[in-house]
Structure formats: structure tokens, C-alpha cells
């Protein structure tokens, strides 16, 4: 039987709160076996862009990553945030090792092609973007890879890449070697049927139930891409996708997405 | 016979010049066999501190690393500079992997004790600071570790650490496993007997010759700690220390320090 590999993804909310982040890292240290952490960025990069007078370039509500913005997000994601998380995990007894996609060529992306909008230095991933062999080597050496949302194109260009996409692409790539459980951690206890009721967590969602919930308008708009992404990962061989509270990963309350 | 391991250290001058940096990385890619790169920081961190209105804290001409300064140098050294170097090496065909000391606990430092001066978040190294086993594993996996000048204390605190010290401490730690050649690269062709004459490179310096040159006042003040450091590394088992021009590492002009 294959070993279990738990892949956790955390976002900006928890990264911006030092106390919550250290609580999450302590919980992560309690998760047995092999694991990978993928983190997004927090508000720090935006604050620094403002302080430095670099105006956000937005098109249709989406940020454009120009060269100055790429520099700042690289500094925050791959520098400050990644190293603080790694040092925090080391203190908690986890032998963490931080990586951008350029490190060991672990995630090679393609700069998003310009169609209607030029998103700038943003990387898209494909099935073949992930160096699963290196991640497996690191895991077998007892290390916990900590991936930030910066990748490269293999020709010297760093690229800003969506952390949810990194987490699910890494999960799919490692599904051939491990029984992968992919955990999207956020500030709610799971998928809620009523966004105003924190106790309305759905314990389990199958593809059929998901279709019903979408038809009934029960899925919040912001949750849709995350869940579409999650079910695609399940179809591609990931064993289980879990939506849960970053501070309660070792508690039973959560939403488990499963193939049937 | 032991394999040869070349350890290169580059400083701020070359990091601040994008063209020179890419020239150096192309030369580094031509060096055969196993290698490690250690890099300092450039002027970028200081510029950003100024832009953000964080006044440099200096005591007796030495910078104090307060919390705000540590954040910025971590962002620059471990984020921007480290990832640009790694992406550049990947483009040149070198499978580079960037590391701070916290990553894989590769360099654990001790916060400098407060005596007359509190240097703040500055890390000192000892013989046992380096995780030689992990560096060896990465080298055997065909990777080229790229170390920045940020370490940690193992209890969650990142620390700013001198890059020359990191290079020589890593060289000493790996001397048990490899025939180590330690290269200090800078903007001159080697140790000069006449600082105003770039052609006065001394090809070879033994400890005896070094003592003579010091007595005769032939060593520039800025070069003294570097050379003291270098001879200490030789005594501790490093095979060869080379002082050379970062843009001429594959040319014969250089100063070789040797035990006898």
C-alpha cells in the first residue's frame, strides 16, 4: 500500500496573523507522516507596494504583475513569509525546507499568454510542471517541503503563480507515488450550506451532491473555483480533498470531498 | 580519492550589477563537478530601508540588525537575490536550489551575545552549525545549493549572518567528505601587492609568505579578515582557498592560498 502524503494549503488570512500562524504550525507539527505545505501571500506585499508608491495595476478587478510588483511579491512570498514559516516549523520540530518553483526546478511554469489582457509575470501550470521526483526525494529524506507561490519559466524568469493551483497540481503529480490527501485550510470549518451559519458544515460532498448544491445556489461564488479545482484533482487520482479550518486540522469538523 | 567540491562566495558588488551577475552565473555553469554558491547581499536592501524611512542603526561603524532591518534583509537575501540567482542558474543548465540556514536546518546559528554592543539579530557560527549531511545529500542528488546570508537559531528566530563566515564554515564542515576548494570572488584578480596595480597579483601565498606580507604592510586592511579566515579554513582541512575575480573564475589569473 502506498504511504499517505498530506498536502496543506494556507492563504493570506492566516499568514497575516502571527498568533494564528504559529498556532497552525503547531497543529501541522502534530500531523504524523509525510507532508507538504503550500502557502499564498498575505497583505504585507500590498502594504509595501503602497508604501513604495507602486500603484497596483488592475484590469477587470485582477492584479497585473509588472516587474516591480514581481520583485516585491518574490521578496515577501519566497523571502519573508517562506523563511518565517520554515523557521517556525523547525522550532516546532518539523524539518521544513522552503522552495520556490525555481529551486531544484521543482515547479516550472509558462508565462500566461497575452489574449485580451496581459497579466504580466504570471505563471500557468500544466500536468508536467511539477518535479515529483525531487519532492519525493526530499520527503524520503525526512524533509517537509514548504512551497511558496513563486515559480519560474526555466529561462531565468520568476513568475507569480496562484497558490491553490500549485497545491492541486503538486497533489495530482504526487498521486502516482502516494495516497495523497489535499487540505485547503481557511478561516471557516468547511463548506457551509448557509454562509451565515458556521454550524452548517457539510461533512461530505460527492460529485453528485456538488452538482445538486451548485444547481440549488448553495455554494458561495468565491468557493466555486476552489471546489471545481478540488473535484478535478480527485478525478486525476488524488485520494481525498479536505476543506477545513486552519486552526482545527486535527479536529473532526471538516468537509471531505470524495469521488463517490 | 575524495570528490572535489568547489565552494564559491560572491558579494554585493556583483549582485548589484545584473549584467555582471549573469556573466558570473554563466562562468559558474562551466565549472565541472559538485559546487555550492554562497552569496551576500547587495545595496538593494539598504536602498529599500531608506525608501521605507527605516534609519540605519550604526554603532562604531557597524550596522545593528533590528527587527525591521532583519525583515528587509530576509526579503532581499532569501527572497529576491537568492531566487534570481537560482532562476538564472536553472536557465544556465545548473540545477540550483536556494537555501537559508533555516531550510532543512542547514545552518543553525547562535544570536550574538550582548557585550559592549547589542548587534541585534545577528548570528554567529560554530564548528557544529552546518548540516553537512543534508548538503552532501543535495550534492549527490545533482543539486547545486545556493546559500544566502540568513540563518536561524532553531527556536524560530531568523538571524543575519556574514556570508564570508558562512562560506568558510560550510567549507570546513564539508572538508571531511570532499576535497574542498573555497573561492572568494570579488572585483580584483586576486591579492595584489600594490593596490593601485591590478597586475600585481600574487599567484600563491603560504602561511610564511602571508606573515611576511603582513609584517611588510602589503595586505590591504579590508583584506586582512578575509585572509585570516582563509588560512584558518586551510588549517581546518580545506584543501585550497582561492581569491579571484568573479568574472574570471575559469581563467588562470588568481591567488591560491595553500598550507605549504
Automatic annotation (TrEMBL), chains A, B:
Substrate binds at residues 41-42, 63, 160. The record marks 9, 226 as: Transition state stabilizer. Its main location: cytoplasm. Coiled coil: none annotated. Residues 7-245 form the Aspartate/glutamate/uridylate kinase domain. Keywords: Amino-acid biosynthesis, Arginine biosynthesis, ATP-binding, Cytoplasm, Kinase, Nucleotide-binding, Transferase. PANTHER family: N-ACETYLGLUTAMATE SYNTHASE (PTHR23342), N-ACETYLGLUTAMATE SYNTHASE, MITOCHONDRIAL (PTHR23342:SF0). Belongs to the acetylglutamate kinase family. ArgB subfamily. This is Acetylglutamate kinase. The gene is argB.
